[in-house]
Amino acid sequence: MAAMNEQKVRASHILVKHKESRRLASWKDKDGKELKQRTVKQADEILMGYLKTIQSSNDPISKFHEIASVYSDCSSANADPAGDLGNFSFEEMQKPFSEATFGLKVGEITGAVVHTASGSHLIMRTKLKPTQVRASHILVKHQKSRNPVSRNIANNGEDGSKLDGKTIKTRTEEEADKILLEWLNEINSSNNPKDKFNEIASKYSDCSSYKRSGDLGMFEYGRMQKQFSAAAFALDIGEITQYCVHSDSGSHLIMRTG
Question: Bridge-partner residues for 251, per DSSP?
């Protein structure tokens, strides 16, 4: 059991409403036709079926979010990741929900259905979402980039071909990703991945942050493009994305540093 004296936790849930729920409608059943006919027992049986599917999955966390995205009666089904309720204090949720969540360890899922006035729930505790992170990145621009010009003077050919975007404008997103994945392999095989990441960022990144080895400083979630923020905030400190992150700026590798 987790300690109950923590100030805040973060969780995702799958909600199945029933005819005793305080609000007899959901985003996928706006008139409540189905849930007004559903008993508490039936809602619980549905959730226990989901739990069995989750527990038998090779990736229970991803399966939990997948099921939440399709079947949860809460609007958090449309969150990123699906079912996410963000950080909350004990008092912000109904007492049975908070008691269950604060009793879980990070990554743990309730083994029984939790009942509140909203309906029946499965709950998965997740890592607290930081209010700010610090990250570095390696950017490779391509023909879909909103500003297809490299800010790295080291990337400029003698004829200025890269400075005026000629090279970038002929580079596909797939080619940009291939470049990044080759660097990622080099980073992962290095004795010091952090230093290798910084070295590559300072030499090759198309962002002006190349001057700081890719460092973007501290930033809040909404300050960066959604895809970038989602990836950066999901990382642990020192972790590097093992895939290419796509934004309007181009293709990125991201390393969380704080």
Answer: 140, 246
DSSP 135: E
Cβ(156)–Cβ(162) under 8 Å? Answer: yes
Question: What are the catalytic residues?
Answer: 13, 74, 94, 118, 121
Backbone angles phi, psi at 66, to 5 degrees: -60, -45
Tens-digit pLDDT string for the chain (258 aa) = 454 557 999 999 999 999 999 999 999 999 999 999 999 999 999 999 999 999 999 999 999 999 999 999 999 999 988 999 999 999 999 999 999 999 999 999 999 999 999 999 999 999 888 889 999 999 999 999 999 988 887 765 544 445 557 789 999 999 999 999 999 999 999 999 999 999 999 999 999 999 999 999 999 988 999 999 989 998 999 999 999 999 999 999 999 999
What angle is formed at CA 13 by the lines to CA 9 and CA 16, rounded to 5 degrees? Answer: 145
Amino acid symbol at 177: D
Cα separation, 10 vs 127, in Å, equals 6
d(CA 233, CA 148): 26
The upper half-sphere exposure of residue 236, i.e. CA atoms within 13 Å in the direction of its Cβ, equals: 3
| Closest to 171 measured CA to CA, from 198, 148, 205, 153 | 148
Measure the CA–CA gap between 181 and 138, rounded to whole angstroms.
Answer: 11
Q: Rounded distance, CA 100 to CA 136, Å?
A: 37
